[in-house]
Structures are given as structure tokens and as C-alpha cells.
Amino acid sequence: MANNNIFEKFSNWATRFTGSSYAFIGATTIVVIWAISGPVFNYSETWQLVINTGTTIITFLMVFLIQKSQNKDSKAIQIKLNELIAANEKASNRIVDIEDLTEKELDQLHCYYEQLSQFAKEDADIHTSHSIDAAQRNQDYKHEFFKRKHEEWLQKQQQKNI
User: Fold this and answer.
1) What is the pTM of this model?
2) Quick one: pLDDT band at residue 122, thresholds 50, 70, 90?
3) Which parts of the chain span the membrane according to its record (predicted)?
4) Tell me, what's the pLDDT at 96?
């Protein structure tokens, strides 16, 4: 547990540092010093190998550091979104923890939400429904309601003409 704590602290520090202007200035300084030292080393293969090896090693290590940072940020964002879904009475709780679904299942959900978007465009108020099922019921109800109202209006018009 102590090793994880040390790595966690180092990872947080390294992520903050490498994203800072100091790190950029330091990297730029190293490249400038390397370029200026070219004539001193007669632009030898060793001189080129130093920058190539250094940047390759740093890039290799940064990939893992960035991935760890993104995993942590992603988990925190998912927890925050789950809290918002759970706290909102109009949100569908079926969406909590969907990040464990397969890509195909997520694509299927995406299609459902595209359909929900189409229903929402037909609604006057975006808060009228909160799930695909509710949106479909709401749309069906509105269709039947306005159809009935229109039929009543037509009957009144016919009675006036008689």
C-alpha cells in the first residue's frame, strides 16, 4: 500500500510538472543546447543518438504516466456524472455505470439517444421526458391528444355548417 501511495504522489507531481511551462522551457533548453553542441561533436552519430535515445525513453515513460493520469481523471468524471444522474429525479438511472459496456452496446445506446433527440426536437419543452420509453409514451400521448382535439374541432366545424 505504501508503494502505491508513493507512486500515486510521484505520478500526480510528474503530471503537474510535465504539463507546466517550466517543463516546456526545460525541454526546449535541452534541445537548443543539443543543437548548439552539434559543431563541437562534428554532428556525429553519437551526438544524434543522444537526443534520439533521450527523447524515445522520455516518450515511452510519458505514455504510461499520461495513461495513468487519464484513467484517474476518467474515473473521477464517471463518478461525478453518476452522482448527477442519481441526484436528478428526471434522469434515467439505467445510464449509471455504462462505461463497462461493450463498444457495440454503447453504439446501441447512442442510437437510442439519437432517437430521443428526435423526440425532443418535436417537444416544445426539453424537460417533458427523461428516457426513451417516457419520450415515446409522451410522443404517442401528444399525438393521440392532438388527433382527438383536431377531430373534435372538425366535428364542431361540421355542426356549424349544418
Assistant:
1) 0.58
2) confident
3) 21-41, 47-66
4) 79
